[in-house]
Structures are given as C-alpha cells and as structure tokens.
Amino acid sequence: MKKPYIAARHHRLIPQPYQGTTQRAVMGNHFPDICIGHLKIVDHLVLGMAAAHHPEVDENLPWRLVPVPMNTWDEICDKLGNETIQGAFIPTPLALELFASGMDIRFLMFVHRSGSLMVKNRKAGIHSLADFKEKPVLVPSRFSLQAILLHKLMGASGLVFGPHDQPGSDVFLETVPPYLMPEILGAENDMDADDPATGGFMAPEPFGSLAVTRGQADIVCTSDSLWKNHPCCGFVVTRHFLKTYPRIPKALVSLFFTAARLLENKTILDQAALGAGFLAQDPVFVQTVLARSRINFAPEMLVPDTGAIDMIQTYMVDAMGIMPKKIDQDIFVDKTWAQNALPEVCIAD
Q: pTM for this structure?
C-alpha cells in the first residue's frame, strides 16, 4: 500500500517564506549589492569563503557581494525569476529545467563536485535496496543530482524510483527541503511506529550527517561512490545582470575560483572553522561532515564540463522523463570566465 504524501504528513514543519534582504542593486551614490541566493549547505561553501575574503568595496570596480541564504530551492527560483537576486548557487539539473522553461539565465561554473550522503531510516528495517520498496525516499528536488543518482541506483536493482502517483513507481520520490529531512525522520522516530513511513534520504551535507549524529539514520553511501567527482551545483546569473553589469561577472567568477583554491589549500580544521560559521554548526561536527562527504572544491573541476551536463540532461529527458527535450548548451553555458579564471589561480599558487 502506498504511503501518504510526505508534505501532508509533516505540514507543521514547513517554514514561512524567506523574508531577508534581496533588494535590487542601484548605483546612485552607493555601490551595487550583488545578491547571490544559496542554501546553508557544504556544497555552497565557496560562497562563504568568497564573502569572507571579498573587500567591502573594490577600488577599481565598486560592488558588494551579498550572500542571501534561503530555505528551499523554490524560494531561490522565485527570487531569481523576479530578479530580486542577480545570481544563485543551484543544482545543475534545476538550472537546466529553469532554462528549458524559459528563464533567461546563464550557467557560468560548477561550485563543487560530489558531497552528498544517502542515509536510511534506522527504524525502517532496511538491509538492502529491495527494502526501500513501497517507502518514500526524500530528495531536495526532482531536478537534482540526488534524484538522478537514486533513480539510477534503484533502477540497477530493478526498482522504479518516482513520485507516489506515477504508475509503476515502487520507491516513492518525495521532494522535501534538505534541512527538514532530519526533522522528518526525528518526528517519525518519536512516534515509535512499527513501520516508519520514510525509508531514508539523499541530500547535500550536513543534513545526512545530522540524522546520523542524532541516531535517526545510518549511512548507505556517498554520492561520490555512485559517480566519482560528479557535478552538482553551479553558479547561474540572470541575462539582465550580465547586460547591466558586464564587468562584474568576470570579477565574481574569478573571486569564486580564488575562494575554491583557498578552500583546497586549507587544512580540514581551517575549512571546518569557516564552515561552522557559514552553516551555523559546531566546528567539530563540520570537520566530520567535510571528511565524510568527499566534497571536492578543486578549481580545475569547476570549469563547466559540457559533456557531463549533456549526460545529465540526456538522463532527465530519456530515462526520467522530467524534461521534454534537451536544451542548447551553446546558449545556456558560458564557460569563458571560468576558463580565464582557472589559469589565474594556478599561477597564484
């Protein structure tokens, strides 16, 4: 018997919409705020490093980097669509879907490789992939690498991973904001049910590790073990922003590449100290998360790989059926600034 929809069971956990500052940049007598939407996840740590090292005002190009933390991908998409933010760190599949749906954005770089964790509900009696049958598994978005990797993983075991109302689905894809995933497992475990509804989840860190630390879940695998150094989130900007401030994107991408190199060159203790502030988590816990996730910030991995992007969109169209057709990467991807930034950080080393 199919389980009820997750959001209906846990509606009390859904947060209020983000109410932070996302005002449009204005020149006037002030330098523009370049607002970049993101989630508080390890995947977006490059943005935290960049913000920590970017001066308030660049004497040659006055502007200010403003990270805008939000709770959900939907919030980020809404703000990007109405241009109250100029750019965002979002999953590559989501960026593809937004572009395919008509949003005028450009993909400038990857912001990390790998970094997610798949966990199983400790009380769900799961000993093999077959035990996920007839149970929901949570992902942050249908248009995410987590959803793609789980679809492929379950398919290899003869299981169909899809929405609960999709004919033929026998492992149920449920979309839940990442930070709510441990809360959902915790709420179900507190009910002490004989048959917990949720089988587990795959999410960007630190949320899998949070569930493990709280005794709610056990690790199944890292995303890196399913696709070595897989692309995940990328940096996108609106076309309007590119036209309005044509000099700033080069400086932004260069800043993010420099931040990635700084992260790569730091010890895990130093990374954890930075991550603790960015994620609002304990430094010792963040150290464990960074070691466990196998996330990769190497600048040479951040230049857009159109072959990998094509693999992703082909799978979304042909295997999952969640996009009607492939998009034109020659319009969607602009790797010029990333290609220019990479030699600069390599020479600086």
A: 0.90
